[in-house]
Hints:
By secondary structure, the chain is of the alpha/beta class. Helix content is about 30%, strand content about 20%. The chain has 7 helices and 10 strands. A hairpin with a 4-residue loop joins strand 9 and strand 10. The longest helix is centred in the last third of the chain and has 15 residues, at about 165-175. The radius of gyration is 19 Å and the shape is globular. The mean pLDDT is about 90.
Amino acid sequence: xxxxxxxxxxxxxxxxxxxxxxxxxxxxxxxxxxxxxxxxxxxxxxxxxxxxxxxxxxxxxxxxxxxxxxxxxxxxxxxxxxxxxxxxxxxxxxxxxxxxxxxxxxxxxxxxxxxxxxxxxxxxxxxxxxxxxxxxxxxxxxxxxxxxxxxxxxxxxxxxxxxxxxxxxxxxxxxxxxxxxxxxxxxxxxxxxxxxxxxxxxxxxxxxxxxxxxxxxxxxxxxxxxxxxxxxxxxxxxxx
Length: 240
């Protein structure tokens, strides 16, 4: 299945304070790309840049949403170029875990307008998502809103999901990826990193490269902690 977005790269002229130069250029070869790395390595900045390039708000949502809670985002998108394939992108959505609440609030406010047509929530399962838990609201998003041929940029979707719901999420995006949808996901979840036939990219302080899961830092850390049966953390705390 051909990807929708194939590459992001820098333009020739960039500001002196442009962050995370080592992330560019980045190519997307699979319909599911998983990006992992330490906090502060640039994952969220990269995804925000892609989302802005497609007209999505930096706090999350689709291109037809235009809102902001705080003006804390510098628009790096103007300094990058994206390469798309000939496949038509039917939908775009940017999910950002820490600001999903803000997006739901905006949706609720828009739905208060009786002259605005069908409530937006109908595209997300019909319920006011503020009445659901974070995990339930996230599940409503990917089960109802995502569709074939769409481009979905997701920043730490696992933060809202239990293990069983992460597996449900994996099942859903695998189905959609076979129907032409593309997912670019930043995550710390080993479950998402184990999705079959994905492109797994690990970001470090000065580079990014494709890896196998067993070569990732997350695999090493989980293996050490789980195999120790509690000893790893016990030794770190220097307790008996």
